[in-house]
Amino acid sequence: MKILLLNGTIVGKKTRTLLDEIDKYIQMLPESHETKIIDLENYELQFVDGRPTDEYNEDMQQLIKEVENANAYVIAAPIFQGSIPGTLKNVFDAVSPLAMRYKPVSIVANGGTLQHHLVIENQLKPILNYFRCMVTPNYVYTHTNHFSTQGELIDEDVRNRLQEMIKVFNQYLQMSQEIELDK
Fold first, then answer.
1. Are 14 and 78 in contact (CB under 8 A)?
2. Where is the NADPH-dependent FMN reductase-like domain (predicted)?
3. Facing residues of 37 across strands?
4. CA distances from 34 to 6, 8, 27, 53, 126 (A)
5. Distance between CA atoms of 35 and 1, rounded to whole angstroms?
6. pLDDT digits (tens), the chain, 183 positions
7. Which residues have a Cβ under 8 Å from the Cβ of 117 and sit 6 or more positions away?
8. CB atoms within 10 A of CB 134
């Protein structure tokens, strides 16, 4: 299966650090999976305005294709001003809702206050439910204190929760393969 690890921001390093850690845990699963980390900062993003996909630049077309062709996702997002980054919302706006249907998704996020975990519940989960994704119930929210001043993950409990999340994610991967859709 092709698992897309999507870093939903163009600034900072903490969400990428989390995705690197998650990638290690996915590689430790009994089944072999192809993973790809997408850092939005590496793409020349365009504002999604409803035009056909082929009218966007090559980077946007490639990004849309990568998202739509993946079999599963781990989405990482910082929380800015009590919300997901506009760059991540822009990606969701570019993707066909049918493309993510019944595909497993796990969520990790990082914020400056403990209350920002509610952004996952009130913004990310509703978007992913609109896409009819199979969202794992155990997301991982991290706080600035879980990282060193250099942006390295230093909290063992967070590592344990990431490992547990990937175990559940793996079960969702297996379930998704059993769903037969009429296309």
1. yes
2. 1-143
3. 5
4. 14, 20, 9, 25, 27
5. 8
6. 999 999 999 999 999 999 999 999 999 999 999 999 999 999 999 999 999 999 999 999 999 999 999 999 999 999 999 999 999 999 999 999 899 999 999 999 999 888 898 899 999 999 999 999 999 999 999 999 999 999 999 999 999 999 999 999 999 999 999 886 655
7. 109, 111, 141
8. 19
**Angle between the 86-94 and 58-69 helix axes, to the nearest 10 degrees?**
70
- In the CATH hierarchy, which fold is given to the domain comprising 2-178? Rossmann fold (3.40.50)
Q: What is the DSSP string of 124-177?
A: IHHHHHHTT-EE-S--EEEEGGGB-TTS-B--HHHHHHHHHHHHHHHHHHHHHH
Residues 70 and 100: their CA atoms lie apart, in Å, by 8
